[in-house]
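As a warm-up, study this chain.
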Amino acid sequence: MTERSPAPGGLALVEALVNTLDIESGADTLDSPEGRARFGITGDDEAGQARALRESLRATLLAHAGHPPHREAPPLGELLAQAPLIVTVDPTDGSAALTPAEDRSLPARVAAAVAEALVAGTWTRLKVCEAPDCHWAYYDRSPAGRGRWCSMQVCGARAKMRRYRAKGA
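Now compare it with the structure written out below.
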């Protein structure tokens, strides 16, 4: 839905996961084996867990944009608390990072991405579009960090047109 460039670093994974569901059309790429393979999801149980994680992330990203959750979702902290992470230290420069204990674990990869974004100060810049029929994830690169829509040309224009028509002009 958006013409924006992907989120930086590990947040690109979070953004891509949230955007596996097109709310307007109902299309869910996690329904296909190809869509699941993109995230390392192999079975139906993992797909169900990925959907719960996706909706929990969407609710959190709505909060980043100042909006209430779109529907009931498990708390993100509870889902990520079960994700095994380890601290790795690069022997050449001493840099440290939280990394998934299991490379294949989607929740652990998401938890590592969130931790990386927290350290970088970019976590709250990942938001979802405020349009109720969209909620597409995007990285807010606006100077003040107050972006509202995934696309000014689509969702922003629709919202402005609705406000204009509501005024009776």
